[in-house]
Amino acid sequence: MTLEKSLFRAYVPPDAFVRRMHPLTKIAIVVVLNLVTLWATDPYSTALFLAICVALVLLSRSPLSAIRGFLLTLLGLMQLLTAAYILLSVKPGTVTYLERRLVLLSSSGGELVWHILISDRTIADALALDMRLVVLILAMAFFMVTTNDRDIVYGLRKLRLPLAVSLIVALIFRAISISVDDFYAVREAMRAKGADVGTGPIWRRVRDYVYLMVPLFVLVVRRSEEVSLAIEARGIPIRRPGRTVYHSLPFHREDWLLLAAFGALLVATLLIPRLTGASIGAPLRWLVESLWR
Amino acid sequence: MATPTVTVGKRPVTWMHLVTFAIVTGVCTVLAIFAVIAAPVPPAPGVSGLYIAAAVYVPVALWFGMWGALAGYVSCVLLGINTGMPLLFVLWWSVADFFEGLVPLALFRLFDVDLDFKFEHRGTANIILLLLVVDLIVAALCTASPAVAGALGQATLFGQKFGLLYLLSFLVAAGLMIATIVVTRSRAWTFYVLFGVLLCSIIAGLVGASVVALGEMSGGTTLTLAIVGVAIVVVTTALAVVAQNNPKLNLLLYIVILAAIVAGVIMAIATAGSNPAYGVVFFGWGFGDIVVLATIGAMLMTILTPFIKRTQVYIKGWIS
Fold first, then answer.
1. Interface check A112 vs B, CB under 8 A
2. Whether residue A23 is found in the same domain as residue A140
3. What would the mean pLDDT of B157-179 be, rounded to a whole number?
4. Which one, of B240, B241, B270, B266, lies nearest residue B255 by Cα?
5. How close is the nearest chain A Cα to the Cα of B120, in Å?
6. Same domain, A141 and A70
7. Which of A8-22, B180-194, B256-270 has the lowest mean pLDDT?
């Protein structure tokens, strides 16, 4: 992996804005978006966070297209979960669109009933849940496609964490992309030998996964030996301090601006409901209701 | 050049252990993300009914000790934040996967069970295990719904009325467990079936199913749960580091592990037990794990254990 390739193997040009962003700024953005979506859960606030997240991805020109397939799969999955949420949660609202009691099984022991209740509250909550998931997935994807393992080491060193801890965290992220490559390599090797991997009845798929995982674990052991020997050969200590790094990543003006903006978002999300009783998404709500009328 | 090490008790922790932990975490994360995409359990995002990574948590904990259990926790955190779960949720929720590795690890160490899976009648043992899994799924369905329990009629036992299917499922489970011990006569296999398949999955399911209520809790409660989750992982790991080769502290470690598990289960049930979706997610989580541990996990244990035991990455104690 070259310096320009990120954890998700996306190519980021060296002069791109996101490439120059400090890794701690990116981590702070992900953490802030995580916290605000947790604290303000109404649909309008979540829509506001979604808009901020999409704007960030577009303005920073993050190469999310590199993981389009993964993102589309996840977003498709979110729709399935939202549909399930609507059908499985029972939340009375002001307007009821559908209410059914389906008896799935009736025996001497009693009845097994599925109660479906779709109200305006169910729809609003499901919409907020769906948008929140999209915000969090986009935020994490933004981090993963624009950051490489060296950035993680530099970022964590900036926080004064020991080199061993920084290295292990970076190695965990690196191991994810290595594992994906190994998984495909083993699968293609099995296919090249005529094995019909991943098709057929469920028991055969389970068996195929065991066949896939055995060489994967043999590779884990081999890689552990190789990587640990490489680290030891470089004289990197586990605990002793004193090791310095050649590269340094300074904070740029854009980093401070972004940190200030997201810090303000966090404070506003916490304070606005306490001071005014309305959520941070209230202006958006007012705008939507004005346009609706 | 001397190998840089941290000496803990008699056995040192080397880079090999730390690197193995990092790489295993990466593998588990990939498998976990794949499982959630392939077989989600609605309505909880990040929960899978065929959680392939769970099949790896127990073997890696038994092979790599506390590093394997930690890999379960960290990979579940990474899975959660990659599939749209808030960070505070996953810091609590991932404790379920930490317990999944920790429970069998602690019990194997407590009873000093050697990972020797060489025994006769392996085919029969596998069939018995699969029958046990099917029987337990039936038992769980009966527990969840009186309608299913009474599908074959009612029976009276000690003056109490029970669903006939419910009673039969427990009798069959007991019979199959006895058959496992008689057929295999293997301590390692019996322990793996009891604790590495059944007990750890049920505990993980009970804790993990609390995810259904996290979205409805106040920020303070979520933060408290997240802190408790991280504290459980940090305290047990730190104590395992200290207790390495120290029999006096080993007893304390077992007590702390037991207390952590009991506290985790009680907190999960207290916070989410009244949610109607709790049972659905517990069922999907717990029995999804039982299925993959009884199939993929069991095969990995029997095939790879002799190989892993010959390498330097195999851990006999807690962390080295």
1. yes
2. yes
3. 78
4. B240
5. 21
6. yes
7. A8-22
